[in-house]
Specification:
Leucine-rich repeat, LRR (right-handed beta-alpha superhelix); Phosphorylase Kinase, domain 1; 4 domains; 6-stranded antiparallel β-sheet; 11 helices; elongated; membrane; signal; nucleotide-binding
Amino acid sequence: MTGLQTLFLDANRFFGEIPQEIFKIKSLSKLNISNNNITGEIPPSISQCTSLNSIDFSRNSLTGEIPRRISKLINLNILNLSRNQLSGEISDEIGYMTSLTTLDLSDNDFSGRIPTSDQFLIFNQISFAGNPKLCSSHQDNCTSLGNRAGASGHNAKRFTAAKLIITVITLVSALLLIIAVVYQMRKKRLQKPLAWKLTAFQRLNFKVEDVLACLKDENIIGKGGFGIVYRGSMPAGNDIAIKRLVGGSSGRNDHGFSAEIQTLSRIRHRNIVKLLGYISNKETNLLLYEYMPKGSLGELLHGSNGDQLKWETRYKIAVEAAKGLCYLHHDCSPVIIHRDVKPNNILLDSNCEAHVADFGLAKFLQVSGASESISSLAGSFGYIAPEYAHTLKVGHKSDVYSFGVVLLELITGRKPVGDFGDEVNMVRWDEWVPTDECNPHVQGSHDVRCGQ
């Protein structure tokens, strides 16, 4: 950007201080950052941009004084600092900037006299309006204010008693003001929204604000032990799935979460739900996934039309989900163990193609073929391998068992628990189930050994 001459960033939502790197662009002649929410002081390093002839910092929240070194911009013709919170006196150095032809310092908090140089005489009162503490050279009250600040000892003695009373009142008022300010600051700190950070793993056509606007109850499409899922309709017309993590998974500084995200961002498989990016602050993490319009396999199997699902479609979904799990177990490094394989975590796109989803419970095995001991039971009732429930040793075989239950659910159309009587789950029931107990839309279309 060494050849950049014009930089217009006006009328956006930028906030924070003016980056000093801008002033390293020696060729810059026009700079406009007006109508944003820029704070802080004007950096003295602005004097390095000696080619500047137009500066517009108006309509921001800048504070402090105008740096004296701005007078070194010998080519500056236009200076607009209006509608900020700048203060202090206008230095004589600025008053002698003979190159200035347009000046607007209105609506700030400047004080003292306006410079009396010939150059400043060409600017009318509008250039300085809205600065109650500022006065022109012909106003006597400027002198009187200055004299009051430096009153002689004789005059001070005359008003000793009055000043003592004023001092006491001032100190008490200052104390009350400090208490009020501290209270307001604490109140604002509790109410102030935390800054969000967007980390994208591919080119995105939406902003943080677009995602946050979708976090409404009417957009909820799913809930789980580790988060709530929202459907987000983006301005460009595309939909995404937004998973808001809750509980122990919240917080950007969580090292386990960071490690999980780094691993998930590298996963690329057509039968794995794609992670587009994530948004986080110190309290909340939002995972952004591609949206699956046909919902989950669980909704499809056990919805009103679940009995009409043909065997060919069931078989296709089973094969595609198996490919996704196989990729996690054998092609990822480190190996990824899902730990919660179930129909609700197998999502379907518009073509009814299966995608394995929900890695909120995923743990990563750093050593191939080894098992990792975990401190708490994870998974869903009815899909947990018996040895896992007793030993808390997790491995890819735990996922294989859970997927086997999913296959039985595809064949029978029944849920793994609750449909077989007390103390009987799908696996035990399948040991003695006759072939004619299969879903009527599956009978005659599959190998009878599938149910044995």
